[in-house]
Fold Helix-turn-helix domain-containing protein.
Amino acid sequence: MTNDFATNLSLLCSYHRSIAEVCRKLDFNRQQFNKYLAGQSRPSRRNMRRICDFFGVTEAELLMEAAPFEDMISLRRKPAQETELSKPLQHLEKLYHSSQSLEKYVGFYFRYFFSFGNPGLIIRSLASVYPEEGKYYWRNIEILRKPGERVASGLNKYDGALFYLADRIYVMEYETLERNSITSVTLYPSHRHRLDRLVGIQTGGPTRRGRKPGASRVVLEFLGKDIDVKAALRKCGLFRPEDGAIRKETVNLIRNEIGPGAFVLDVEEP
C-alpha cells in the first residue's frame, strides 16, 4: 500500500479532535492505528470497511493519490450555499407548517433504550425540547459511562427537530460531532393532564456498528422545564437492566421483544 493511504487517513483524522478519539470511536488499538498512519501496516479487509464507513468514503477513494483526495474532501466539507439549501428547507417548512404546537412538551427528559453498541445495556441520556421562533427543537446528550465506573469513556451529542403530525410526535436527530448518522424517533403524544413519560420506537444506529441499522423501543421520562442539568447528567450512563438503577416498569417498556403473531417491532399505546 502506498503512502497515499497513510496521508489520506491522516487528513481524515485531522477533522477530529484527536487520534485517540478516532481510535475510541472505531474501537481500534491505538498502536495498530498508528502503524496505519505511518504507512507501516495495511488494515484487514474488515478494518478497512470499518474505517471507510466511519469516515464516509469508499475504499477506492481512500486509496486515491493524496492531492486529488484532499480536493475531494475539501469540496465535501464546504458549506452549502443558501440556494442549494432552499429545496430541502422547503420540505422542512411544509412539515413545520402542518405541525401542531409542542409547547406542552417543552422541557427535559431522561431517554431510555437498549444500547445499539453495548449489547444488553440500557442507555440513560439527557434530552431536551425547546422552542425557537415558533419551531421546536431537540437536543440529546449521551454520557458513555459503563456500569460501576465513575469516569465516562465518551460523550455523544445530538441535535434535531420535532414535528407533531397526525397525533404522533416525530424527532429527527443527527450526531453533531461527526455528522454521519441520523436517528428517527416516533412517539405517542400524552393526552394526560400531567406529562410523565412518552413511549415510542426509534431507528438508526451508531457508526461503530458499521452500516448495520437497528430499531428499538424508547421511553422519555419527563423531568420538568427547569432542572439542575449537571446533576441530571451525572445520572446518565450505561446500566444493566437488573441492577435496580432503572425502574422495572421502564425496563419492561423498552424490551425489544416481538410477540407471537407479530412481524414488526412496535409499541402499544399507553
The first strand starts at residue 107 and ends at 114. The chain has a mean pLDDT of 89. Residues 84-254 form a domain with the Lipocalin fold (CATH 2.40.128). Residues 26 and 208 are 6 Å apart (CA to CA).
